[in-house]
Amino acid sequence: MCRLLGVVARRPEPLGELLAEEIPEFVALSREHGDGWGVASWSGTAPAVARDVEAAHRSARFGMVRRTTTDAGLLHIRMASAGSPLTAQNTHPFTGRRMAFAHNGFFSPRDALDELIPADLLATATGDTDSERYFLLLRGLLREHEPAAALALAAERIRLRATAFASLNCLLLTDDALYAYSEQNPDSEVARRRGPEFFRLHYQITEDRVVVGSSGMPRAQRSWTELPERHVLEIRRGDLRVSAHPPLPPVAAAS
């Protein structure tokens, strides 16, 4: 399993300053979630991405990324699923079409979505993770839907197709906003073993920034708000407008 952290700020600052309270606890989690890290930060006309298969707490490169100046970014530390190689191609975030995506959780089988992913997008897959398939499905849905609806629809497709899943939690960074989606399967082996809090996403709104992240940062997250299950949190760049989109109605979700 993995951990997620995202931020949108009113003005660009180094990530290490924007997330001064969160990053130490987040990096400490890489002692368990130690199978690589990735950071996407908005820069110019597309997200700039840095990734490494080394654990974040041991990585000199991660220390350098803290100095990246941006107004919007997402961070991911990885705990690889069994049998998934530790390669750059399997390391989040995944990118394409001026966006970046990171997932915390798993579903199986990995190819459950292949029939639903447009052939031109499936041909661009470079790794062998379920998470990359999640992103490719989402990119296909974004051709016809706005991001909040596309995220909810992607999760619905996985729920219907997968034989098992633990969590569909994810972050999506676009040129307009950062989006977070929250959903876990309480009956999964991971949820039973780690408890109901493990996959919950929380967020905090202040005057100068909005932050969203996985559990495991107790000091930083003392006053954060839980993102309800199957809701999409939308944080707009520029004005920090925040919307929590409720689950799609059954008719829309099935269409």
TrEMBL record:
Record keyword Ribonucleoprotein present: no
InterPro entries, alphabetized: EgtC-like (IPR026869), GATase_2_dom (IPR017932), Ntn_hydrolases_N (IPR029055)
Q: Which Pfam families match?
A: GATase_4
Which residues belong to any copy of the Glutamine amidotransferase type-2 domain? Answer: 2-255
What's a Gene Ontology MF term here?
transferase activity
Q: Where is the signal peptide?
A: none
Q: Which keywords annotate this record?
A: Glutamine amidotransferase, Transferase
SUPFAM superfamilies in UniProt: N-terminal nucleophile aminohydrolases (Ntn hydrolases) (SSF56235)
Query: Key word Transcription present in the record?
Result: no
Q: What is this protein called?
A: Putative glutamine amidotransferase
